[in-house]
Amino acid sequence: MKYIVILVINLLFIQTSYSQIHEFGVFIGGSNTIDDSNGQSSILNPSRFAFGGLYKWNRSPRHSWRVSATTNYKMPDLGSENVKTIAEASVGLEFNFFEFNLHQSGFKHTPYIYTGVSVFGFNIADPKLDASETAILLPEDTKIEVGYGIPIILGYKIRINYTFNLGFEVGARYTFTDNIDESNIIVKKASGDVFEDRRYGNLNNNDWYVFTGFTLTYTFGRKPCYCIN
After folding, report:
1. 125: alpha, beta or left, given left = phi > 0 and alpha = psi -120 to 50?
2. Is 210 exposed, middle or buried (CB count within 10 Å of its CB: 0-12, 13-18, 19+)?
3. What three-state secondary structure class fits 225?
4. Are 52 and 27 in contact (CB under 8 A)?
5. Percent of the chain having pLDDT more than 90?
6. Which fold has domain 23-121+142-178+205-220?
7. 3-state secondary structure (DSSP) of residue 88
8. What's the mean per-residue pLDDT of the chain?
């Protein structure tokens, strides 16, 4: 265990001979959820168009700090009404399996893995009772709920030319909520008594959501200095 800790510290803080190269780019793909409402367990089952932006701060040819913002959007010809609109912001560390030195000539490519923390918002039903507390008001209100998750992204990227990189990635997010699919809603009276219990499915199994797609990034920054300090 101590060797893993030492490796992580070295990755984060060691002074390398490489400059701090930056990348800005876009993400385009699809999204889906894994929850109680759709009965899906497949990661690769996109049912909504997804898009976003990302920034990478390349600390070395092997690792980068990464910040991204991604959301999905319902398209007329893409499937299930159960898939929620989710907007996510994420920050974490991307690790390249091979050296990905963008200032060296030749074909560059590498698989990579990313993880960190995600904060996301999603819309859910917010049913309210009428003044007499004998019926639910229609149409039902909705609200934005905020959740947290752990992204686990696997991808593969190549350098197109000196300034552009193309990647493909599949990213599953484990969340700390079981309510993305609205499977954990209870309508209560002002007294706290339960008026309607809408819970269903496995309430001990939290939901997942997935973004799958392509990234295109533009790279800029100083050329590495190989001089001895």
Report:
1. beta
2. buried
3. coil
4. yes
5. 47
6. Porin (2.40.160)
7. strand
8. 84
Tell me what pLDDT residue 19 has. 52
pLDDT at residue 15, as a whole number: 42
Rounded CA separation 228/173 (Å): 43
d(CA 202, CA 184): 10
**Residues in the chain, total:** 229
Identify the band that residue 83 occupies on the pLDDT scale cut at 50, 70 and 90: low
Domain ranges of the chain: 23-121+142-178+205-220
Per DSSP, the residues of 145-191 read: EEEEEEEEEEEEEEE-SSSEEEEEEEEEEEES-S-TTS-S-EEE-TT
SS3 6: helix
Contacts of 61 (CB under 8 A, 6+ apart): 18, 96, 99, 100, 101
Token code pair at residue 6? 């030492």
Provide the pLDDT for residue 6: 52
